[in-house]
Design a protein that fits this description.
Blueprint (H helix, E strand, L loop, with lengths): L2 H11 L3 E5 L8 H4 L4 H13 L5 E4 L2 H4 L2 H18 L4 E8 L3 H14 L4 E4 L5 H4 L9 E7 L5 H4 L3 E4 L2 E4 H9 L8 E5 L6 H8 L5 E3 L9 H8 L6 E5 L1 H4 L7 H22 L8
Parallel strand pairs: 1-2, 1-10, 2-3, 3-4, 4-5, 5-8, 8-9, 9-10
Antiparallel strand pairs: 6-7
Helix pairs in contact: 3-5, 3-13
C-alpha cells in the first residue's frame, strides 16, 4: 500500500484506527474455544466487526509464534483472510525484527514475499545495514521503533549525546539518521501514546512521516493529546488499539462489542480530524 492509498483510506473512513490482533486464547470467550482453530475464528469475527471503522490491522507475531506451527498457520490464514476480504486495509506485522544485514534480508523476504504483509516493525539498534534490507520492497513499509510507550523506554531512548555541540536524545538521533536510509513513502516510526507532548519533539525531527501509535486505551495514552501534538496535514497517524477493542467483552457478543468500541474510536477520530487545523480535508 502506498502512502497516497493510505491517506485516501483515512480520508474516506475519517479514521486512522489500527486494530491490534494480539489474540490470546486465555482471554477469548468460551464460545470460540471449541472450534477447530479458535484464534482464527476469533480474528475473523473481530475483523468483520471492526473493518468499517479502521484502516489497518496489526497482528503481533508473539501471540502466534507462541503456539508453534499451528500458531503460524493461524497467522498466515489471518493475513490471507484480510487480503481476500479487506484488501484496502494496511497489514502491519508487529515482529520487531532487526539483525545483521544477511539475516535482515531473510527476515525481509519472509514478511514481504512469503507472508506479503504491507509493513513490518523493525528495531534500529544495529544500525543502517540491519534496516536497509527491509527498504528494498516497493510499496512496503518499515515501521521503525523510535519512542516506545513502555516504562523502560527511559532506560535508553532518552539518553543524551552531543554532536557538534548540539545535545540530542537517542530517539531523536534514530529519527534523524534513519531518514538518510528511507523516506516518508516507505518508513514510519513507532511513537507511544503515553509520551504525550514528546510528539512535538518527534514532529520537529520527522514532520511528514506516519507514526504508528500504540498505548491508547489500556496503557493510558490520550488520543486527544496524540492528535494535538502529532497530527499533520495528511493526518500522519495510525493509532493502535488492541486490548481495548478485541477483549472488550468475554461473552458470546464479543464481536459486536468490539465493533462498537471501534466505532466509538472512529467517531472520536473523525471529530479530531474535523477540528484539527493542520489536517487537509478533502473538498
Amino acid at each position: 500500500m502506498t502512502r497516497q492509498e493510505l491517506i485516501q483510506q483515512i480520508r474516506q473512513k475519517r479514521s486512522f484506527l489500527c486494530v491490534g490482533l494480539d489474540t490470546d486464547p486465555k482471554k477469548m470467550p468460551q464460545c470460540v474455544l471449541d472450534l477447530y482453530d479458535p484464534v482464527f475464528e476469533f480474528n475473523k469475527a473481530i475483523i468483520e466487526a471492526t473493518a468499517p471503522y479502521c484502516v489497518a490491522y496489526k497482528p503481533n507475531l508473539a501471540f502466534y509464534e507462541a503456539y508453534g506451527l499451528k500458531g503460524m498457520e493461524t497467522f498466515v490464514k489471518t493475513i490471507g483472510y484480510l487480503k481476500e476480504h479487506h484488501p484496502h486495509h494496511l497489514i502491519i506485522a508487529d515482529a520487531k525484527r532487526g539483525d545483521i544485514g544477511n539475516t535482515s534480508q531473510m527476515y525481509a523476504r519472509t514478511f514481504f514475499e512469503e507472508y506479503d504483509v504491507d509493513a513490518l516493525t523493525v528495531a534500529p539498534y544495529m544500525g543502517e545495514d540491519s534496516v536497509t534490507p527491509f527498504l528494498q520492497y516497493p510499496g512496503k513499509w518499515v515501521v521503525l521503533l523510535a519512542l516506545t510507550s513502555n516504562k523502560g523506554s527511559h532506560d535508553f531512548q532518552f539518553a543524551t549525546s552531543s554532536e557538534d555541540g548540539v545535545p540530542e536524545r537517542l530517539f531523536e538521533r534514530v529519527l534523524r539518521v534513519s531518514q538518510q536510509w528511507g523516506n516518508d513513502e516507505n518508513m514510519m516510526y513507532v511513537v507511544g501514546a503515553t509520551q504525550g507532548r514528546m510528539f512535538e519533539d518527534v514532529r520537529r525531527v520527522a514532520p511528514n512521516h506516519f507514526l504508528l501509535v500504540p498505548g491508547v486505551g489500556a496503557q493510558g495514552g490520550s488520543l486527544e493529546e496524540v492528535c494535538r501534538y502529532g497530527m499533520n496535514s495528511d493526518c500522519g497517524l495510525l493509532v493502535n488499539s488492541s486490548r481495548g477493542i478485541i477483549y472488550a467483552s468475554s461473552d458470546d457478543h464479543f464481536a459486536e462489542v468490539a465493533g462498537n468500541k471501534a466505532r466509538e474510536l472512529q467517531q472520536q477520530m473523525a471529530a479530531l480530524l474535523d477540528s484539527h487545523p493542520q489536517f487537509d480535508r478533502p473538498q
